[in-house]
Amino acid sequence: MSVEETKKQPGNSPVKETAALARTMIRAAQKGALGTVLQPTGHPYASLLLIATEPDGTPLLLISKLALHTKNLTADQRATLLIDATGLDADPLSGARITLIGEARPTTSATARRRYLERHPSAAGFVDFPDFSFYAFDIASAHYIGGFGRIIDIPGSDLLTDVAGAEALIEAEPGIVEHMNADHADAIALYATKLLGGAPGEWRMTGVDPEGCDLVLGARALRLPFATRVASGEEVRKELVRLVGVARSQAA
After folding, report:
1. Model's pTM, two decimal places?
2. Alpha-carbon distances of 121 from 26, 52, 96, 211, 214, rounded to whole Å
3. Is 79 helix (H, G, I), strand (E, B) or coil?
4. Tens-place pLDDT, residues 22-40
5. Conformation bin of residue 52: beta by default, left when phi > 0, alpha when psi is -120 to 50
6. pLDDT single digits (tens) 209-232
7. Radius of gyration of the chain (CA)
8. Residue 36: Cβ within 10 Å count
9. Which residues are CB-contacts of 241 (< 8 A; sequence separation ≥ 6)?
10. Residue 88 to residues 27, 68, 93, 96, 194: CA-CA distances in angstroms?
């Protein structure tokens, strides 16, 4: 969803409309710059990491205790996470980016492993190494810059998806993703190319949540928003069927 599309939503304030765009940016991000407090000097320390998200949009990190950023977090959990959505813009400073502000701490979430590995299959080669652990980035607030003159601070709660009552969907998610990738690759390709402007290729679905689903092709990721909130596998099925109809009509 673009900024202009978000602005058209009735009743949106600048913060609310920007938060909706920011949630899409976070879901579509494959990587980010993690800022931690360097020990023992207190200097800012930045490192590049792969990112996935929980069903509610909480960023997930897979990091080694041998890494300097992990040692920093052991002493001080305060952190920032910069997500750059400027892409190949000729003038990157006119593009969108967001800095998440909060704390990064170890997580034992039941969904962290599968959602991270769906997003980054190459991590399967080291995810079980004893020094690697999943961390969740708890967002307290965010600082969004959408180009010159468009700077907005966003409460962390506005960047998370409400998953209350969607337990059935979260439980069904692995089966939905597996089924779509195995049996409906053509539909996924239509979503990516006709609805989201992605390049042709073997796109795959990596996750689904109440607000939408995530599609990946190599290092490229896209976010497909749903028209209405879904809370079960059956509701997801109906929305995906509707969306493929929209995509086919645009392809005609």
Report:
1. 0.89
2. 19, 11, 27, 23, 15
3. strand
4. 999 999 999 999 999 999 9
5. beta
6. 999 999 999 989 999 999 999 999
7. 18
8. 25
9. none
10. 19, 30, 11, 12, 21
